[in-house]
């Protein structure tokens, strides 16, 4: 527990107050390093509890910090909503390609160094981790597969041409 403030002395650094009045845990979660609104309010409360009564903190500073935290939360929500929108838009765009003939880049050949492509009809759309992928059928109507016989999944970024 930190020492009480004495008038005329400097307060301890904030990192010495972080776990004050908190139950100790046997393991720490090192992967969660960001401070959320709860941690911010705990820090603010600890700061106010341990301030020197003869030199109180400027109240506008606390309000400013709270406003900054609210703005940060709003920006995080906006970012999350925009990412969701992008994902949904990409899926809708991919779905509009169903039944169309497409030419896709399948990579660069290791022997010739040339880019290879394959052409087929887009037959299905699948979403993995929010990203749309599609399968194609060849000119005979059979799925384009890998060497194991599994249908190949193509990303929309691999498309180099589309025909009606």
Would you summarize the structure shown here?
This protein is α+β, with helices and mostly antiparallel strands. The protein has helices at 37-49, 59-95; strands at residues 101-108, 115-128, 131-137, 154-155, 159-163.
Description:
The protein has 164 residues and is of the alpha+beta class. The protein has a domain at 99-163. The chain contains two helices and five strands. It has helices at residues 37-49, 59-95; strands at residues 101-108, 115-128, 131-137, 154-155, 159-163. α1 (37-49) packs antiparallel against α2 (59-95). It starts with 36 loop residues before the first helix and ends with a strand.
**What characteristic shape results from the CA principal axes?**
rod-shaped
Task: State which percent range the strand residues make up.
Answer: 15-25%
Radius of gyration: 29 Å
Biggest sheet character? 5 strands, antiparallel
Structural class: alpha+beta
Tell me the number of helical segments per DSSP (H or I, 4 or more residues long): 2
Distance between the termini: 73 Å
Q: Share of helix among residues?
A: 25-40%
- Could you give the count of β-strands? 5
| Uncertain segments | 1-7, 24-30
Give the overall average pLDDT. 78
